[in-house]
Specification:
InterPro entries: Pectin_lyas_fold. Keywords: Membrane, Transmembrane, Transmembrane helix. The chain is α+β, with helices and mostly antiparallel strands. The protein contains 3 helices and 7 strands, in the order ααβαββββββ. It folds into 3 domains: about 45 residues, no CATH class; about 50 residues, no CATH class; about 40 residues, no CATH class. A hairpin with a 2-residue loop joins strand 2 and strand 3.
Length: about 140
Amino acid sequence: RVSLLSRSQVWSILTFDKCTEGITMKKLALLITMMYAIIIGGEAFFKPRHHKNLPTYVPKTLDEVKNYLCERFEKGICIDTKPAKIIINKVFDFTGSEGMKEELGCYHRTMPAQCLKNGQMKLNVNNQCDGLVPTRVKY
């Protein structure tokens, strides 16, 4: 049996935080968990109609997830030519798995002073930070 959420329930989960001007990680994790429960809870929600004979993989590690998604990388681009079913049955935390980097960026918009410390940041791509409060962005 599959239980779907109403639009108002989803919206209440995704209600924007006035400081981050976006979805908080806690709310995003909750939504993903609920989506995962819906998918696992019943086949009617997602049932492949084609490709019944594709190889099926259930990754257990971050490296397995990466390898199943991409055969190889060329100049940083994923190259994959083999169709497959990849079943993700747990949360994989990629935080820090490819190292960390720090660059000059800025806060997303002009924000109230109390939000600057924890506000949403962005990288200075194509001079998008012109006129905005500068900061260092770690990712």
